[in-house]
């Protein structure tokens, strides 16, 4: 037996069949193995770097066993068959985790007249093994066994070639072309359309969380967002003038509805020939400095939409075209006329830019700087998937990298967000916030929060946001959100709008889900979404909508701590219940509940209780047809006699292995059971794990209005447990240099004692003295003054 310490590839064996070359294994960490097989024995070609990690110096033991060679680190065993090169992964205890089913397979394919090599690998999964990930495919299920699709970025349904298993491992396929996934009786297969290698990373994190952390280790960690990004955001398609944008925010402040920001959607540049001019060239935005200052004076932030495409009359178009950095693809908008359907006899000539070029990305940032200099706070990067009306030959167009578009197709969102994040970080220490539509592996490192696209407004689509968001999270990026209410109102278009009771119930439930997502942003077309249009205080629909926003701010200290854990501890914001309770088979496909952090179990109402469901699909293009027929319903729910506060029954599953407290009622439930309980329109069912110590924030109109110097600390007895409060300066990257504080709360259930530990860390401007009001579900209360030293509170 030989013992080696290596950061270089270990050649496991030479394949002598089928013209195959070498199988190479590299340990990037004790629990991460990189597998490479190439047809010609060369190195894999990576035009765009999805993986940023370098191999560590890992202690590996090597031995020959049963016609194979085994490489063993302290966390993982990799076994390579000497004849076929097939790789099997085992736990340190010898449990088979995953096994390749035979050698790699290579294809010479004709793509648009070009002969290109593609590669595939098949593995054998356990018969009942559950897997998760593969991106936000807007599936109805959580467990992705049996999924067959082409994985690449889309408007709705971003596919990503990475998954995690209930067995505690993850697999990350490193290829930027479209990848076909097949899971059937022949095994589980990834097939790259273009790629000279089978090239993937096996991560044995020991758990779902650990495997996601491994994905981050190889493809990049998550930078912190500013705290304002976690507040409530109002958006719509679209605010048409600078005065409308300011007036909407002003109305929110007058009504006392909490809000952190507003979004300026497209066409602030004017007509389609000026598409994405990155300037306020439209007649309805004559004084953007006034607009931005007005937003800031009301203690709010402004996001603005920017695209990957440019109209022919814009400055970026002319500069990029001169350097051949524009793709000739037909993209949105198709016509230079602002009418629907598009007049193709008046083409727009809008073109996508080639963001694979560092020079082109620099040009993009140079022109975006005009908006940056005005004081725009963050970026809504729409259509980074991108919008593209595909025609024959497009995929074979040569990019600036010298390869075809097909070869790097899935990296387009990655390079698009990179252009903004990397350039902005060179100029400021303020945190970058990017809201984007296209998803890519590794995109989490560029400050990107991905939303699920232009989804339709119906109950079925609402339900799909949870498995979609969870499966996206499990590919490595914790920042997922969706258009609250759905983007295309569909059959609700002409159904009375805000007064349609069917719409009102759907919108309330979508907003309530948004309370627990990484970003809470209302957005859509056709039907207005501004909360103040839905009644007034004391009316059930209005109160339910405002209540969902107020709860968001109430939970903000916990939310911000979860966000810090995602950034600093490689945790996740939106987590599948199975991540904490894999031994409970009921959680394996629990698609419509999720954990927010590790303490809160969210069980939202996702079906109509007072009206009827309408789940007619609405296509992406169909949604723009303003002449579409709608359900003609008039009058709001109150006038139609709907009692929104009448009790209805809701069901939830509480996983085995913990007891659970209902946040709203303070009632305790045992885990391992399905529970039924009454709800009304205002109900937002969620449960807190026994043993949790939960910090709650003050009633505010925006993040930062009040300091966190007098927080309520909820303790949920029934088990030993803990909680934490993370703080920093909330807006700069000083946190990456250790400028933060954490206060740990530990609950001893038998002794009924809460220990508030000494403050860990420091940052400029931190609170040195504060008060905590500690509350138990039975109403017992203790108020303590905390000056950074350990405090013990006995109940």
Identify the CATH class of one domain. Mainly Beta
Helical amount: 10-25%
Uncertain stretches: 1-8, 13-19, 626-637
Cα distance, first to last residue?
A: 59 Å
Task: Let me know the average pLDDT.
Answer: 94
Number of strands: 45
If you compute it from the alpha carbons, what radius of gyration comes out, rounded to the nearest whole angstrom? 27 Å
Explained architecture:
This protein has 795 residues and is α+β, with helices and mostly antiparallel strands. Among the domains are: 2-219, glycosyl hydrolase (family 31) (Immunoglobulin-like), CATH 2.60.40; 707-794, Golgi alpha-mannosidase II (Immunoglobulin-like), CATH 2.60.40. The chain is built from eleven helices and 45 strands. The strands form eight sheets. Strands 1, 5, 6, 7, 8, 9, 10, 11, 13, 16 and 17 form an eleven-stranded antiparallel beta sheet that branches. A hairpin with a 2-residue loop joins strand 10 (105-111) and strand 11. The longest helix is centred in the middle third of the chain and has 17 residues, at 358-374. The chain is globular, with a radius of gyration of 27 Å. Mean pLDDT is 94; it is low at 1-8, 13-19 and 626-637.
Question: Short summary of the structure?
Answer:
By secondary structure, the protein is of the alpha+beta class. Among the domains are: about 1-220, Sandwich (Immunoglobulin-like), CATH 2.60.40; about 705-795, Golgi alpha-mannosidase II (Immunoglobulin-like), CATH 2.60.40.1180. The protein contains 11 helices and 45 strands.
Task: Fill in the keyword field for this structure.
795 residues; alpha+beta; Immunoglobulin-like; 11-stranded antiparallel sheet; 8-stranded parallel sheet; globular; disordered N terminus
